[in-house]
User: What shape does this take?
Amino acid sequence: MILGKYSFGIGDRFSHQGKPQLAALIKAKEQGLDITPVWNKSHREHTIIGTTHADTRKEADDAVAAYGWDRPYLVDADHIGLNNVDEFIASSDFFTLDVADYIGKKAQEADVKSFVQKYKKYTGTLAIDGIDKTFDISEEQITAIADKSLTAVKQAGRIYRHITAAKGADNFITEVSMDETDQPQTPAEMFFILAAIADEGIPAQTIAPKFTGRFNKGVDYVGDVSGFTKEFEEDVAVVAFAVKEFGLPKNLKLSIHSGSDKFSIYAPIANALKKFDAGLHIKTAGTTWLEELIGLAMGGGDGLSIAKEAYTKAMSRMGELCGPYESVIDIDTTKLPSAQEVDKWNGERFASALRHDQSCEHYNPDLRQLLHVGYKVAAEMGTRFFDALDKYEDIIAQNVTENIYARHIKPLFLK
Ligand SMILES: [Zn+2]
Assistant: This one.
C-alpha cells in the first residue's frame, strides 16, 4: 500500500462527523487537490470515551459510501504499542508505531558498536541537498544518537513485525512517531534514526518527529517561527536524503501531530513543501469535537444548554481532564471565565469565545484548550449528547467542514 503525497488525519472523538470531514476533502478535490483522508484515533481516546476502533472504521466506511468517495482512505491506529496493537489490527490499515517511551533507554553495547561501524562513513562534513549549511558529524555523536534511539527503533521493529504477521506486509501503511517525548530531535539525529529504521526493515512512509516549540492542543503554535521554519526545511531535506541513502520508501514524508490550528507556521510549511516538492501528513485530531460544541451553541435551545453544561463540568474537573494532556496544553486559569458568566452568554457569544478566530476579540484560547480536553464530560452525557448532535446536525456539519477546509487545507495546500 502506498500513501499519497498529501494526507490529512481527521480524528473525531465521537465518530459522528465522518461525512462533514470528508466533505472538506471533496471540496479540496474540486480544486484539483488530492488529499487522502485518514481517520485516526488513539488507544487513549478510545479508553476515555469508551469506543473501539471498529467504530472509527464504521465511521470512515459510512462516510465514504454516503458520498461515493472513490479515492483511497485509511483508518489509523494512532500511537499504538505492542501492549494495545491487537485491538486495532482488524479495523486499521495505517499504524502509528509510538516508541517515544523507549527513547533514551540505553541500547545494547554490541548494537551501538555495529551501528557506529556501519555509519561512521558519514563523519566529518555532511552536506545534504537543499540545506545551505553543512553538518559536522563525529563518531561520538553517532554513538550518542545510537545509544539513545536504537532501543526505541528496535521496539518499533517488533510492533511492525507483529502487525505484518497478522495482516501481511502489503496491507497497511506504517508511521513511526517520536513526538510525545521531552526533547525535539535535531535534523542530524533524525538522519541516523532513519538509518536505524531502514536497518530494522521498517518500510516507514511517514515519520513524526518532535519539533521545537509548543504544539498545544487546538491552539496556535507557540515558539520561534523562523527557527521552526529552518528546522522544518532541514527535516524535509533530511528525509529526502535518507530515502536515497538508506533505501527507505520513496514517498516517505513528515507527519505533524497536534497539527490543527498551528496557523502561524502553515505558511512556512506550505513554502517548504513547494521548495522541496515534498509531501505531508498532518494530524488534526480532536478539534472536530470543538466544532460540535460551536454548532450546538449556535443552534441555541438545548444545544446551547449542553455546550454550557460541558464548560461548567470541565471547570469543576479541570485537574482530572487536563492530567492525560499535561504536556500538550498551557491553560492560564486566571483567564477562564466563570461558569456563572458563561451561563449568561447567548449562542453566538459562546461560539465566538471557542472558535479559533484570532481576529475576534472574544476568542479565548484558555477556554478552548480546556474544552478541547473536556470531551470526557460529553461522553458521560451519553445519549443526551448524541441526540443533540443529530438534532443540530446541519449547523455542526457546516462548522466541521469549514474548519478543515478554510482554516487548514487552504493555507497548507492551496496557497
Ligand atoms: Zn502524536
